[in-house]
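User: Structure tokens for both sequences below?

Assistant:
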Amino acid sequence: MLKYLLEKEFKQIIRNKFIPRMIIAMPLFMMLVMPWAANQEVSNILLTVVDNDHSTASEELIRKTVSSGYFIFQSVADGSAEAFKNVDSGKADIILDIPYGFEKQLLTERISSVMISSNSVNGTKGILATSYLSTIVNDFSAMISENSELAHDSGIVLSGASFSIIPQYKFNPHLDYKVFMVPAIMVMLLTLITGFLPAFNIVGEKEAGTIEQINVTPASRFQFILAKLIPYWCIGLIVFTLCMVLAVFVYSLIPVGSLITVYVFAIIYIVAVSGMGLVVSNYSDTLQQAMFVMFFFIMIFLLMSGLLTPVGSMPDWAQFITIFNPLKYFISVMRMVYLKGSSFSELVPYFFALCGFAVVFNTWAILGYRKRS
């Protein structure tokens, strides 16, 4: 019975004049246009400090940085290696490395240097964080030059202290915002196609009157829902593969991590989102109703997924809501695998979260379909 139901679904898709064209046109448009999104200002930047000098000048620089309001002070690392581990684990977004002899160089040579290392997986956040910190360091330099109270207390008397800032951008060294956006746009496109199309499927059967014919067949609810989902799983994988090919040839973007990991998460995500679409379809009576309900949920999911603005910059109540947003998890996975090369072991929490969404939505879709004979 499942074989004949699948045959029916694929024939309907092929005969549809809109869906086959959309499968090709929509990825092309989204991948070629959407990555050129506007930059966004960021806040709540996680700061780790490496203070090798432990002097009055270095402590004042740290105090001035933290009091700026842009940074959240996380920790003082014992060395650069420990600080970079914090960046790798997501505990820090930027590192302020103050070298040994910082205050002494200011006193004797009238020049010193600090190193700023920024996590630029999010290129916008990386460059803005570096810009903020550079401005603070320059202001500190001007303060020293004017023989401030700090200079008097620490014995530093300069007439033109200057700093040499050497930024280091991890994961996205060229600060190309498109590199940050392309993996997320793949997720957004996958959501629109595998979410909206299943949502229109069952309700389309209701409007056409064919649902009554299916209800009197011996097909079980499980077979019926599975036949509705499998074609869109295939479409989702085709669209996802097309997007990855476009990313390679248009943006020269190849995942640093495993391609298998990307596809494993993509399959689970497609199952979850298509299940959500069928849940909406089960409870809708018209295509218009299904469209507006899906549009409402998709818009909320997109805006609170970290697509354009970091989740960490949202209010606490908004960050709590994002826990129930499957887009947030898959966007994070795509960026981590594409830019950082994260392995599956580092993505286990995201894996279980997406599996939970897939089980809940698809179970709901099966139980929510009331087959009447």
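Moving on to the next sequence.
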Amino acid sequence: MSELIRFSVAMPENLLVQFDSLVARRGLAKNRSEVIRDLVREALVDEEWDDPSQEIVGTLSIVFSHHAADLQGKLDQVQHAHHDKIISAMHVHLDAHNCLEVIVLRGKSEVVRGIADAILGVKGVKHGRLTATTTGLYL
């Protein structure tokens, strides 16, 4: 880890009270400085994700009914078409009708989002969300 630099931050008291509440919810190992570092890292990751040329890692979670006609085949078809960007996939049976699939993707932001959109657009997918982070080690 590089040298820590101290700086001060001014904010309205009511905002500081809310921030201290956030620090408390984050747990015993967190303090104001660590939570500020977390928030800065999060902002930097969001900025990288917005750049279509930056490499990211994402998890796409989808929920679907396994009774939907040929849905699993369509999902497999999209995943096979992008096998070089899909690192792993996990399939979970939630109940007698519904499944959860978590797909880990890695590639340029634009490509990962395109694959996620293709999967989310398959008829029969009930819900899904892509969560992404940077592959940058500098954070």
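User: Anything stand out in the second?

Assistant: DSSP finds four helices and four strands in the chain.
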